[in-house]
Amino acid sequence: MRRANEAIQRKKLSIPTVDGMLEEMNGSTVFSKLDMNMGFHQIELEEASRDITTFSAGDSLFRYKRLSFGLNSAPEQYQNIIRQTIADCPGATNIADDIVVHK
Hints:
Number of strands: 5
Structural class: alpha+beta
Distance between the termini: 41 Å
Helix content: 25-40%
Number of helices: 4
Radius of gyration: 17 Å
Shape: elongated
């Protein structure tokens, strides 16, 4: 993905720290952790963005339709999407592909 990463116009988005997450959970006594398996692959790339992920394998060309771990903006984009999704869920916070629900 080196060539694709060169073409990406990256927006810097903040990724929470474990310390910030622990501070948010201060005072909670009940916890549950949800691990979103293959979470990146649930995010569909916009049609216009797919061409930069094209790669060759033998005589064939392939391109990603879903967010890939190798894209340099993937972690912050994923984090932002999940943060927006759980914004109205009190007691839910996320870091990477984990959501912690606490009360």
